[in-house]
Amino acid sequence: xxxxxxxxxxxxxxxxxxxxxxxxxxxxxxxxxxxxxxxxxxxxxxxxxxxxxxxxxxxxxxxxxxxxxxxxxxxxxxxxxxxxxxxxxxxxxxxxxxxxxxxxxxxxxxxxxxxxxxxxxxxxxxxxxxxxxxxxxxxxxxxxxxxxxxxxxxxxxxxxxxxxxxxxxxxxxxxxxxxxxxxxxxxxxxxxxxxxxxxxxxxxxxxxxxxxxxxxxxxxxxxxxxxxxxxxxxxxxxxxxxxxxxxxxxxxxxxxxxxxxxxxxxxxxxxxxxxxxxxxxxxxxxxxxxxxxxxxxxxxxxxxxxxxxxxxxxxxxxxxxxxxxxxxxxxxxxxxxxxxxxxxxxxxxxxxxxxxxxxxxxxxxxxxxxxxxxxxxxxxxxxxxxxxxxxxxxxxxxxxxxxxxxxxxxxxxxxxxxxxxxxxxxxxxxxxxxxxxxxxxxxxxxxxxxxxxxxxxxxxxxxxxxxxxxxxxxxxxxxxxxxxxxxxxxxxxxxxxxxxxxxxxxxxxxxxxxxxxxxxxxxxxxxxxxxxxxxxxxxxxxxxxxxxxxxxxxxxxxxxxxxxxxxxxxxxxxxxxxxxxxxxxxxxxxxxxxxxxxxxxxxxxxxxxxxxxxxxxxxxxxxxxxxxxxxxxxxxxxxxxxxx
Length: 644
Ligand code: AMP
Fold this sequence. Notes:
Elements: E1 7-12, E2 16-23, E3 26-29, E4 39-40, E5 43-46, E6 55-58, H1 60-64, E7 73-74, E8 98-101, E9 107-111, E10 114-116, H2 118-137, E11 143-148, H3 154-166, E12 170-176, H4 177-188, H5 196-199, E13 227-234, E14 239-247, E15 250-259, H6 264-283, H7 290-309, E16 312-320, E17 323-330, H8 331-355, E18 365-369, H9 376-386, H10 399-411, E19 419-423, E20 428-432, E21 436-441, E22 446-447, E23 449-455, E24 465-471, E25 481-488, E26 501-507, E27 513-519, E28 525-527, H11 538-582, H12 588-607, H13 611-624, H14 626-643
Helix pairs in contact: 2-3, 3-11, 4-10, 6-7, 6-8, 8-9, 11-12, 11-13, 11-14, 12-13
């Protein structure tokens, strides 16, 4: 990668997304004209008139119309990406848009009879961020580092990368959000001199030899000169906790854990459920209308945020037909309802510390990331758990995007004195005889890495072996997630136990897995690429990318049509004014011709879909009215002379 190349860092959040970059002055969030770096991760779709394509709004505009356009406003899509319908069943009652099962255990969002994949919706958000960056930087942006929750599995990572590709971005690296946050935190620390190993690495290359796996867990590193920190990331939809060691510019993730279904949305739901129950008890009605559901969701979030500042807040919900639900909620009551969720995060904090063989006393800092860490109860419980107040100097909304930009800068060779060593959050393996999970790569192994294992056949003359690739921590294959299956066939018939099949797992720096298998005696091999059971095929990603480019072209066309029509309106109107003023100075035939030209051009502007034709007609109209314009100018000058 050349040193001039720009790679942006993107935090593709459940609630908000941000884009950042690094220049000589350091990392910067790219902000809108109001100074806000956040783009709400919300998409609104309105049907196009007369068969025209649907109009898509993104960000603040979509969020502002979420209530009246409830069925066609998509939010929290990050909860759906890379998932099957079964995985998100408990989210369904809270969504005001329609979700159905897609092919290969994916989910799809249905709006006005058209189906959108979560990747497509995410791609629209990513495209908006790409365009924001291009406007700001004044040049095309084609590469990005995108962050994901550390606990995202292979399917969710692949889906995120696919969304990037569909948005016209090459995703050069997927980085875990807490790791990105630690990078942003680390850059704020006093930077020690570069470490020889990292500094010697050629720019743009992964400076690591690929270690073989399973490696010994990196945990247990005693804190010497550097710092060991916990990154506690509680966002809109997900929770992540990671322990990192920061030393001499090297960021080593020691352990990580999380819950992809625990975040601010769940705290909102505590209020939603309270209101729903009380409305039902008081009025005997259930809140089912999408607009009321959306209004309640918006209200619940606002109340929750108010309770971070105040000790009580008012809730008021118009139920129609002169029924208004009203009540006051105290912070204590709200905290009582959400306490079990906060405790769940602390249980995971305990787990990562155990994985890293550390205790809270070994940590120098607990860094907070994610909007939900503004909640007083969260801060209080973290302080109690880690035995020190959390570090809050970084803006929890921006820290991940800044870290992503720093990683982008490392990858483009501009930050040769820093190195990021991430780990895989979940164990990977294959199903062995009897339905057990045979782990090849254990969780918290540093990536990139490679693991191989040999297997054989159980039946004489067996010519094919099915390999089921699994991800998860449980012992039984049925309790782990199947990432995909493939068959190594064409084996020469041999006695049971004779074939030697070597399965190789290659986990890249993005945490994305490639699996291959080879029978060593015959040399027969199956080159397979894991297409996740939950995910899009390559062809589908390409289709989305094509369509999004087509949509972009349609958007450009729509824009050009509006510009041309405005120009026609302006030019014909000006010409009419000119005719009224100096038309009597023209020959009657010329005047009549110009009047006909005005009518013809206006008609064409309304009727034609050929924008080039309209452009040509507009140019010809300009030529045809030149004489009139000259007379107009001359008359104006003469009049001016007289007035002087
Ligand atoms: P993130 O995914 O990091 O953008 O976090 C967004 C989540 O943080 C949403 O659920 C917000 O409602 C929540 N949030 C933002 N500000 C506050 C606040 N002051 N108090 C409580 N929750 C907040």
